Amino acid sequence: MTTPTFERPMPVKTPTTAPFWDALSEHRVRIQYSPSLQSYVFYPRVRAPRTLADDLEWREISGMGTLYSFTVARRPVGPHFADAVPQLLAIVEWDEGPRFSTELVNVEPAEIRIGMRVKPVFCDYPDHDVTMLRYAPA
Where is the ChsH2 C-terminal OB-fold domain (predicted)? Predict the structure, then answer.
């Protein structure tokens, strides 16, 4: 009996998120900034949170950050990820403020520490025309 294989789900670019995905495809990180809040905003949206101002602008950030939280998923989160365990699921706090849900790469689970500096790793999937943002120790 053959084990079925599943293609991993990939993000879908929308008009609101396109600038984020387009920048990743160029190996750059761009997120929104709200002058009314005087802060960066993530996830992409059409209005600023809290103020609902229509003032969001796309700005490039370094992508550098600090590991805020992580878990080592030793069981696949779904059948699409059966060949990807352990998965090093993480939340990175960008230097510019917002937090980003991601995966850690190029690191052993025992080496991961909350508060460690991390740098962006751009993972291209040309068959899907998408670049995913992952993180590795800085």
Answer: 58-122
Angle formed at CA 42 by CA 38 and CA 47, multiple of 5 degrees: 65
**Among 133, 75, 74, residue whose Cα is nearest residue 109:** 74
pLDDT range class, residue 3, cuts 50, 70, 90: low
Q: Give the C-alpha distances (Å, rounded to integers) separating 30 from 40, 77, 86, 123.
A: 10, 28, 29, 16
Phi, psi of 15 (to 5 degrees): -55, -35
Strand partners, 72: 88
Alpha-carbon distances, residue 41 vs 4, 19, 82, 106, 137 (angstroms)? 40, 14, 33, 28, 24
| pTM, to two decimals | 0.91
Of residues 136, 97, 87, the one with CA closest to residue 116: 136
Phi and psi angles of residue 30, each rounded to the nearest 5 degrees, phi first: -125, 130
Question: pLDDT (tens digit, 9 = 90+) per residue, 15-72?
Answer: 999 999 999 999 999 999 999 999 999 999 999 999 999 999 999 999 999 999 999 9
Alpha-helical regions (H) of 1-138: 18-25
